[in-house]
Amino acid sequence: MSRTTVTHLKTAAAVAVFVFAGRAATMASSHREAPAITKTPKLDATDFYMFSSYETGREGYVTFVANYIPLQDAYGGPNYFTLDPEAVYDIKVDNNGDAKEDLTFRFEFEVKRKNIALTIGPAGNQKVVAIPLVQAGVIGAGDDAALNVQESYTLSVLRRDPRRVDRVKDHATGDGRFVKPVDNIGQKTIPNYDAYANQYVYSVDIPGCTGTGRVFVGQRKDPFVVNLGETFDLINIAAPIGATSAESDDLADKNVTAMVLEVPKACLVSGPNTPVIGAWISASLLRKDDGPRGRGNDRDRLVQVSRLSAPLVNEVVIGLKDKDKFNASEPKDDLQFLDYVTHPTLPALIEILFGSAGVRAPTQFPRTDLVAAFLTGLDGLNKTATPAEMLRLNTAIAAKPAQEQSNLGALAGDFAGFPNGRRLGDDVVDIELRVAMGALLPVASAPSGALAFTDGAYVDSSFFEVTFPYLKTPIPGSPGELNGR
Fold first, then answer.
1. Closest C-alpha among 328, 355, 368, 316 to residue 447
2. Is 28 exposed, middle or buried (0-12, 13-18, 19+ CB in 10 A)?
């Protein structure tokens, strides 16, 4: 690649977050990022990852990770964290660059209650009374008789051209319904959570695709790493420059609910000469006054309340007044937010907070570098035709094994990483802080551009597994010493 292309790639690595810079102190990746979404936490998307699979033998696949329900305390019983059966959760893929979904992978959930009851009282005065818990005893692999609440889901593929809907099936059984394991209640209830949860990793047949995909839905350790509390408090650290591991990860004791899907690359692209895909996730509520759910006019019958692609976009967005508008919008309409790209406020806010230490914001406006990277992708990497905020992945760029990945992604010359998709170990906060402050601009217009900005919370690929579903086992609710209590 040319030096110019490499420079553009480095720029792309950091822009996806800070192009929308409404508040300097909000750095968690889409955790409770807009006023309205706080009312429906079951539909709150926290993070979206998309990367070429790097598990050995899965080189021809792309892995999507869509995380929901933020800030889950492991001990959050007695009901824990079920998904919403009156909603749909979508992974949307654009494979021709027009910022409209060509493929939608739709998850729909069902929650069944067994209403396990106990006989209470002496003979002659007995009553059968329902228990108040989601479990009535020990649960293990192949034995969930004591589980009082069972979650399951279907996974469908919606295609735009030609328009059709197909059900994904279990490769082994042909069944079209899958089980979501209960959350990690604790080691007394579920002595071996890994063995219990792993039985619900499914190999699947995806209609219209050659090759066997995989799917898993369940609670996982939150993969996002950020010095959250101090960042919220007007970046309350000595300076946003220094050791990359000097601060705490405030999400270290939190879980999320993950939808992890692996799809053959050939199924996602429109052809061998168009390897770049764009993708985003959304969650929508089903209108309750439109009759039974069907396959006809879902677009008119759903109310979108959450949307996410590149990390931190709506978290450090525009003004407060437009956060809900962004969550309800679609990528094809993103030019309405252009002012927040060309004139980001985050660098100015950082200068206000740390100007006494010599920190200065870039002076180049409009930020055309951010416009190119944020709305179109980069020449030579992942450019698509229509300006839109999507996470873009060039599927022709081979994945790197976990031990060879740089947590700074393309900024460090690792073009298999962010912003070419997003891997779990890509440190998007540090990447984006540095570029937002002008790391790739001329010194004359970015006097602080060479400084190593960081939130101090470190992450890399070693934090995660090297096999599907990649995310770590969720933190158990008990015993407390396992999660720092």
1. 355
2. buried
The total of other beta-carbon atoms located within 10 Å of residue 218's CB is 25
d(CA 413, CA 212): 32
Contact 30, 310 (CB under 8 A): no
Residue 234: CB atoms within 10 Å: 13
Question: Residue 170 phi/psi, 5° resolution?
Answer: -60, 125
Residue 150, amino acid:
Q
Cα Rg of the chain, angstroms: 23
pLDDT digits (tens, 9 = 90+) for 156-194: 999 998 899 999 999 999 999 999 999 999 999 999 999
Q: What is the pLDDT of residues 13-52, one digit of tens each?
A: 333 333 333 333 334 455 676 667 788 899 999 999 999 9
Query: Alpha carbon of 445 to those of 12, 143, 363, 408, 450: distances in Å?
Result: 18, 64, 5, 23, 12
Instruction: Read off the pTM.
Output: 0.89
Angle at CA 388, nearest 5°, toward 349 and 341? Answer: 20
Q: Which residue, among 362, 423, 314, has the nearest Cα to 19 in the 3D structure?
A: 314
**Neighbouring-strand partners of residue 170:** 204
Calpha distance 442→287 (Å, rounded): 52
Cβ atoms of 249 and 28 within 8 Å: the answer is no
Give the whole-angstrom CA distance, residue 22 versus residue 313. 10
Smallest Cα–Cα separation from 80: which of 441, 426, 478? 478
